[in-house]
Amino acid sequence: EIHMFRENSTLPASMQREQNNFIAKTFLWMFAGLIVTAACAWLTYSSGLYFRFYFGNSFTFLLIAEIAVVLLFSFFAYAVLNGVTMSVIFAVYQLSSIVVLFLAAAALFGGFALYGYSYKGDLSKWGPLLMICLIVAIVMSLINVFLIRAEFFEIFIDCAVLFLFFGITIYDMNKIKKLSLVTDGGGKLHIYGAMELYLDFINIFLRLLALFGKKK
Fold it and tell me: How does pLDDT run across 159-178, given as a tens digit for each residue?
């Protein structure tokens, strides 16, 4: 059974509790995914396995495996693989820089997520535009990697993608809030929402690291 309520309507107390529980479960899964990723990244780096993956022709396989896991929608499997591939940041950037920018990403993500949650209007029209912008950014990034290879262009793309994910965070949080008004008989919508917010946070963090991270 599905129950839907308009944005400007007052929710019954029971539905308000369900909404709060949905949001809480969504962020709990997101935080759990981030913890798994951080732990796997550090363990892979500290054990020296990242060196084998990066120089042993396994890194490409891991990236392909990540895509496959996303398609199969296994959240924690993706978090583990993402942690392994992200272990290289500990070899490239100073630990203090990683920690500071992680906290900065958390603050920015939290601010934009809160705005998306509190926004009363309809953001459904943002979806196609944000997707087009993301595809364009990916294409331009690949062009720069394989053809242009210009540092200033890479910085421009990183800035554009950072602001793009600010918008995506607002959109996703607003969408998750609306999903929380749907009772799906104990389904896994909160995991779907957690995956989206997890990816938003990771992309904000990586863009900040690329722009402001202090390299070793």
Answer: 999 999 999 999 999 999 88
Q: Distance between CA 178 and CA 122 in Å, rounded?
A: 10
Model confidence, pTM: 0.86
Give the pLDDT confidence of 144-164 residue by residue, as tens digits.
Answer: 888 888 889 999 999 999 999
Buried/exposed 26-49: b ≥16 CB within 10 Å, e otherwise: bbebbeebbebbeebbbebbeeee
Check if the beta carbon of residue 88 is closer than 8 Å to that of residue 48.
Answer: no
